Amino acid sequence: MILDLIPDSARTAGLGALMKGVGKVTRFLPIPQPTLMVGPGSSGRLGQAIAGFGHRKILIVTDAIISKLGLLKDMTDALTAGGAQFVVFDEITPDAPIPLIERGIAFYREHDCDAIVAFGGGSSMDASKVIAVAIANPHKPLRSLAGYFKGFNNPVKIYAVPTTAGTGSEVTVAAVISDPEKRAKMVVVDTRIVPKMAALDPNLMTGLPPAITAATGIDALTHAVESYVGNWTTPYSDGMALSAVGLIFENLPKAYHHGKDLVAREKMALASTYAGLAFTRANVGYVHAIAHQFGGRYHTPHGLANAIMLPHVLAFSMSAITGRLAQLALRAKVADESDDDDTAAQKFLDAVIAMNDALGIPRHLAALKEADIPLLAKAACLEAETGYPVPRYMSRSECEAIIRRVLPPADEPAAKPARKAATKPAASQTDGQPATPAARQRAPRKKAA
Ligand SMILES: NC(=O)c1ccc[n+]([C@@H]2O[C@H](COP(=O)([O-])OP(=O)(O)OC[C@H]3O[C@@H](n4cnc5c(N)ncnc54)[C@H](O)[C@@H]3O)[C@@H](O)[C@H]2O)c1
Ligand SMILES: [Fe+2]
């Protein structure tokens, strides 16, 4: 790989400039947006609308838990009342693997469908998107659809009903599935896979278990933050990201503790969609690059992987994004106007750590193994370097060090140095170790460069 031959410092400096250049072009790329229906009962209203479109037969793609919980009922009742034919494929598992997608494709063909309702979390929505591209491009092997605009023909029409408030996939140009042979995630990007319509129905989310509420909510926060601090921002993506951050800080703890709070659930659903709109334009960064490796190798739930890594990547990037983090702190209401940027940015990082703790997010990734870290870091760096407009690029060894911080304590070869680092807040500004509030009290704060 040619990137391996270029020294780290030159590579990361050049990449920054290159990515900024690419961003000047992508900001003009037209990205369609779905018509949104919002509020309790909106999945039924969407079903009513779809029934009027005259499809021959609709494939509803979902997972067995959603099916058993009866969450499809409002939608299917409305389809039936409107005279629409549909079949349900409810076999989706988290990070749907390629063989499962192939079964979905076969099911679609067997039932002679002509549209898809993507009903569920990101895994069901993304599986639907890939099925839609594959059906329209039957001569392309599934793996060859990975990457940007790989399908020649327009995908099948998709309508979306998210049942988690996290991925924002109902409005994004991306679909993430998994390739079990490579033990890696596979990403399909195409502006034509954005659903035509979507329903944000909080009634469907009241039974979402607290741990999934937490992890998916932090996924949405990560989308908002990574898009806001990257180099492809636009006034539109900034507005969406700021709104999402405000809504998440106010409503995620409520949705976590009081799952039946419909208002908090609806606001989280909106936040997830806003964050999706932000990052589908301005992209994500190292948190996602690393989280995708955890998901591919260990099947770590996507939101959980992001939540564990977010504080560490923010700490690494802090010197390059102090002003942006300060803005986020104000919107999250964790800092006030009288704080200088350094103080406000640090308050934002502290608030992210505190929110993770309050939501029961672990600080370590139990499955992570020291021996895997070099490969994970290499793959994460490659993903970031070839796709993400991050504010500060990492060398491979910096990325390894950041991943090493989330090793479970028993596997930590350097358990002592890690504990020592936690008492050394200056490190938080330079090497990716987030300073805890307690650690900062033990020593004076270093001003961010
Ligand atoms: N396309 C994008 O833009 C995008 C963005 C971020 C993440 N992703 C991808 O999305 C996937 C993760 O999606 P996710 O975090 O939504 O999780 P998920 O779809 O994998 O669902 C997680 C679990 O929650 C359950 N669940 C979902 N909704 C429920 C509900 N309302 N009540 C009870 N249980 C419910 C599911 O059955 C499942 O067991 C990953 O593959 C990730 O890479 C895609
Ligand atoms: Fe994500």
How would you explain this protein's 3D organization?
The chain is of the alpha/beta class and about 450 residues long. The protein folds into two domains: about 1-30 and about 205-440, Dehydroquinate synthase-like, alpha domain (Up-down Bundle); about 35-205, Rossmann fold. Helix content is about 55%, strand content about 10%. It has helices at about 1-5, 10-25, 40-50, 65-70, 75-80, 100-110, 120-135, 210-230, 235-255, 260-280, 285-300, 300-330, 340-360, 375-385, 395-405, 415-420, 425-430, 435-440; strands at about 35-40, 60, 85-90, 115-120, 145-150, 160, 175-180, 185-190, 195-200. It has a six-stranded parallel sheet, sandwiched between helices. Helix 8 runs parallel beside helix 10. The longest helix has 30 residues, at about 300-330. The radius of gyration is 21 Å and the shape is globular. The two termini are about 35 Å apart. The model is unreliable at about 1-5 and about 415-449 (pLDDT under 50).
